[in-house]
Design goal:
The protein is 35% helix and 17% strand. It has helices at 2-7, 33-47, 60-70, 83-91, 102-109, 123-126; strands at 16-20, 50-53, 74-76, 95-99, 114-118, 148-151.
Length: 152
């Protein structure tokens, strides 16, 4: 996966954040794409970081549109990896932000500092096993929390 990153011009001396912006069961489980774009821009400005947008192949076009909206610090990679490659890629990242998806669960399993965003579902019942707290935040805010879920 290091060659995969190099082929996309991603330098590992800068922070690399994986983002899973889309969910299988529709918009009720998704934080708005415009907010992900704002988050990507904030990561780029604040930390000079790059973001990899991960999702299923069927979300490829949506990831491309989000990457275009967010600018040059976002790379659409939906459907480009096998499960094994996805796990390897996550292990090379510095952090993760994602909706209620399997990728969010995998990020926690590999030990990646993870922010899981749960909209219509209760993370206490289906969230990753590493979660110790489940704070409920107003839908207008996203705080940086490692290994914690946010219900929005």
């Amino acid at each position: 996966m290091r060659a995969w990153l190099n082929a996309r011009g991603i330098k590992r001396e800068l922070p690399l954040i994986a983002i899973a912006p889309f969910a299988s069961y529709g918009k009720a489980r998704e934080w708005p794409a415009a907010r992900f774009a704002a988050l990507i821009n904030w990561i780029a400005k604040r930390y000079r970081g790059r973001c990899i947008l991960l999702s299923a192949k069927m979300d490829r076009r949506r990831c491309e549109l989000l990457a275009k909206e967010a600018g040059p610090n976002a790379i659409a990679a939906a459907g480009e990896t096998s499960i094994g490659e996805l796990i390897a890629l996550l292990s090379l990242c510095d952090g993760f932000v994602g909706n209620d998806t399997g990728v969010t669960l995998l990020a926690g399993v590999v030990g990646l500092p993870t922010v899981g965003i749960f909209g219509s579902t209760n993370p206490a019942g289906i969230g990753p096993v590493w979660a110790k707290d489940t704070p409920n935040l107003p839908s207008g805010g996203l705080q940086s929390m490692s290994g914690t879920h946010l219900s929005i």
